[in-house]
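Before going further, learn to read the protein records used in this course. The integers have meaning only within a learned vocabulary of local backbone shapes. To see the layout at work, look at the sequence and tokens printed below.
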Amino acid sequence: MPDRMKVLVAYDGSDCANAALDDLRQAGLPDNVEFKVLSVIENWLPPPSGLEIVEHIDRDQEYLTLAMRAANCIQESAPGWQAESEVEFGSPASVILEKADEWKPDLIVVGAHGRSSLGRFFFGSVSQKVLHEANCPVRVAREPKEKLERPLHLLIGFDGSPGAKETLRVVTARNWPADCEARIVYAAWPSLGSTSQPLAGKIADWVADEDLKIKHKIDSVVNDLNAAGLNTTAVIKAENPKQLLISEAESWPADCVFVGARGLGLFERLRLGSVSTAVAARAHCSVEVVR
């Protein structure tokens, strides 16, 4: 029997957490999946006094009920999906990361926002912290704006880097519907124009050469994805990668954006910032960041 895919689902009963459960059906997951539903009770204050123990017991039961309900919902979604529930205390992001280090899931699923504004004030965005520090792919799930009456749309950021290649491997390994559509998006370097300066001219030649190499790779990638059953097209524009991915996701529209956690190199990251972080924070749809 093949190894089950392991998916850690962070769940707090919020609308975003429920959207993450619904989003699992659109994630292309295989029939053979082991889920762990983790609910975290935020515990940033000192231990409770005797008068507060009853309140904490009630809260424990509430979160346990939430986690069990989510696990049952997941198991009902597909015959081969198995789910168990777990409740922990602490900072939600830290507990999720600790559980991931211990359990070693193939994917972490989180909602875009949680239920506690106070927790977000003290700890920052749970999804963003998990996104930055997890050692495996992280899917930040959002509720779709419209009910799908068309094929599933997958937008894939590509820049020729190892992270982009791993992203393609993850996408092609999933089980997608027969009519699923994919779109490769590459943000080409902007034209530097003509210049008489020798160094600037060499840089312009290098940029043009790199763009040409990646465009050839994209042709090959499109053919591979079509062969894998995904109806695939490509968009190549000279634009900031963050802006291009977000705008293409909105206009197509995409149901999920897949992007690598790292780009081509240090220079690009210093110049452009973290593309994956920006897309996960600002995209209207679910975003899966692959390592």
